[in-house]
Design a protein that fits this description.
The protein is α+β, with helices and mostly antiparallel strands. It folds into two domains: 131 residues, Up-down Bundle (Four Helix Bundle (Hemerythrin (Met), subunit A)), CATH 1.20.120; 62 residues, no CATH class. It contains ten helices and four strands; from the N terminus they run αααααααααββαββ. It has a four-stranded antiparallel sheet. The radius of gyration is 21 Å and the shape is globular. This is DUF4145 domain-containing protein.
Length: 264
């Protein structure tokens, strides 16, 4: 079976953005400067969409001001802002500095493109979306494959070194008590699953308005995706909104999509 393009998931609800991302992918190896410039153009589209979708009046003069406005309004998180900044700055350099742009830089932009496309779809797309694993663009004929392999290998080694450094900073010697501690409960621990019990076990704050015809809210930011996305296995879907609702006093929160079900 032919492997689907990396950005096929985007094509299901944002076909124009998927086509543009596919164009960038085809330029990564043979025309890095153009890949950087087109990545910035892709970013302009998603930022404009976010401003409109979230009801933010666009009175800003440039892309930098627009991305900062999204961050200031709480619509994007710090990591998403950082990825946007990288695409913006690298695209600017490629557009204004002759010869700027290497394969390593275009591969990095491709990774940011994937990160933003996944976040965009997780927050605004289909509730049952499962992100495909990241993969590098396929190497076209006529490209120096040995050099590409060296670049990818160097990037992977840097990532592994960074992860090892982070683990070493947080690693503590195991103790007898730690060994005997039970594993954290997961969503599949019990056949008689209770959503509110699960939220309680995770130490989350929630507000249940289902009895009054509303929905269940979990108060917290985007970082709760690590706790709430595993619930998709049970067809329990939450959607994040940075502005929350009246029930959360406009604090960032997640709301339950299948709110009609009071049995979970």
């Amino acid at each position: 079976m032919k492997e689907q393009p990396l950005f096929a998931f985007l094509d299901r609800w944002q076909p124009a953005a998927a086509r543009e991302a596919g164009d960038v992918e085809r330029m990564v190896y043979h025309d890095p400067p153009s890949a950087l410039i087109r990545s910035r153009k892709w970013l302009e589209g998603i930022v404009g969409w976010l401003l409109k979708e979230e009801g933010v009046v666009d009175v800003y003069e440039n892309l930098a001001e627009r991305t900062r406005a999204l961050k200031r309004e709480g619509i994007i998180t710090e990591p998403i802002f950082d990825a946007m900044e990288q695409l913006r700055l690298e695209g600017n350099k490629a557009a204004h500095q002759s010869g700027y742009g290497t394969v390593e830089e275009s591969l990095r932009a491709h990774r940011h493109l994937y990160q933003l496309a996944v976040w965009w779809t997780e927050v605004y797309g289909s509730a049952d979306f499962q992100a495909p694993p990241y993969r590098h663009p396929p190497v076209n004929r006529g490209v120096d494959t040995a050099e590409i392999e060296r670049v990818i290998s160097r990037a992977l080694n840097e990532k592994l070194d960074s992860m090892e450094s982070m683990l070493n900073r947080h690693r503590e010697p195991a103790t007898a008590t730690a060994v005997q501690t039970a594993e954290p409960k997961t969503v599949t621990d019990s056949s008689s699953f209770s959503l509110t019990r699960y939220l309680q076990e995770q130490g989350l704050e929630w507000i249940d308005k289902r009895a009054a015809g509303g929905t269940l809210w979990v108060v917290g930011g985007w970082e709760l995706n690590k706790v709430l996305f595993p619930l998709k296995e049970r067809k329990i879907y939450f959607r994040f909104t940075p502005k929350g609702g009246r029930a959360t006093q406009r604090k960032p929160a997640w709301y339950l999509l299948n709110k009609a079900s009071k049995d979970i």
